Amino acid sequence: MSRRVLITAGANGIGLVMARAFAALGDRVRVCDVDAAALAALPEGIAGTSCDAASAPAMDALFEAIAAEWGGLDIAIANAGIKGPTAGIADMPLEGWRECLGVNLDGAMLLARGAARLMIPQGQGVITFISSTSGLYGTPFRAPYVAAKWGVIGLMKTVAMELGPHGIRANAICPGSVNGPRIDRVIEAEAAAKGVTPEAIRTGYAAGTALKRLSDPQDVADMAVFLASGGARMISGQALAVDGMTYNVDP
Ligand SMILES: NC(=O)c1ccc[n+]([C@@H]2O[C@H](COP(=O)([O-])OP(=O)(O)OC[C@H]3O[C@@H](n4cnc5c(N)ncnc54)[C@H](O)[C@@H]3O)[C@@H](O)[C@H]2O)c1
Questions:
Q1: Which of 26, 136, 219, 250 is found 20 to 30 A from 20 (Cα to Cα)?
Q2: How many other C-beta atoms lie within 10 A of the C-beta of residue 169?
């Protein structure tokens, strides 16, 4: 059966790879994003809506449109996230802190709120949050991102408890460092903050995992597909790392 899938921030990066994975299974997929050019270039089979995931009016309008078009929603993925400022706590700008929490944490709540309103009457649904290994450990110079991603896991656990009796499962995926332009930006910022080369940071990230390499977006997409499948029918309330087993976050 063709499932109805919504992914926030799905016009690029991990979100787009997840969207492609669900579309390849024959699901109906809609992404929202703020990148107009990327929305215009979405591949066939993936619908796009221009929408800031951190804006309550925009997200509510998105869910109203989905209710009108699809009459419900089966799979909702809270993927929107920005890296936030890279700065020591003594120098942390409040504006950048708030912006980071706005997209990563307000965005996750707004996705879950809209999804719950559609899924509770159905008595079924899957909500998956994209947290991070930064939601499992501390990460020096990334306090806003870490706080937001720990917050996402607390939100997920509560959503899972509230909505489980309605047949709705909620989990969080915690990717480690994922190959792509975003991690390049993160590495460059951390290298500048620490006064070392980007290559030293990248090598350290891989060395700090058991599998000695960074993840690919497809690794995250495969977990998202599994969590939405019948094989995951008894999995809820879990924060699942897809990271090659991080064991040293500040090598
Ligand atoms: N890339 C990594 O190494 C990594 C690691 C762990 C967790 N994550 C998480 O995975 C998720 C996706 O990361 P990514 O690497 O694909 O990100 P990315 O930086 O490549 O951005 C993906 C998309 O987010 C969109 N976006 C940004 N702000 C938005 C907003 N307010 N509303 C709607 N769309 C918005 C961008 O336009 C872009 O299309 C994020 O939550 C991120 O925190 C990423």
A1: 136
A2: 22
Mapped onto helix, strand or coil, the DSSP state of residue 238 is coil
Please report the atom of ligand 1 found closest to the CA of residue 35: 37
Mean pLDDT by 10 residues, the chain (251 residues): 96 98 98 98 97 98 98 98 96 98 98 98 98 95 97 99 98 97 92 93 95 97 98 98 91 65
Length of the chain: 251
Domain housing 77? 4-176+215-241
CA of 121 to the centre of ligand 1 (A): 30
Residue 144 lies in a domain: yes
CA of 12 to the centre of ligand 1 (A): 8
**Does residue 125 sit within a domain?**
yes
Predicted TM-score of the model (pTM): 0.97
| CATH number, domain with residue 172 | 3.40.50.720
CA nearest neighbour of 3 among 19, 13, 114, 17: 19
Task: Return the closest-CA partner of residue 25 out of 68, 75, 69.
Answer: 75
Cα–Cα distances in angstroms (integers) from residue 129 to residues 18, 153, 162, 185, in the given order: 12, 8, 15, 22
What is the SS3 assignment for 120?
A: helix
- The answer to whether position 112 is within a domain reads yes
Cα separation, 5 vs 52, whole angstroms: 18
Look up residue 56 and give its two tokens: 């309550």
Residue nearest atom 1 in ligand 1 by C-alpha distance: 178
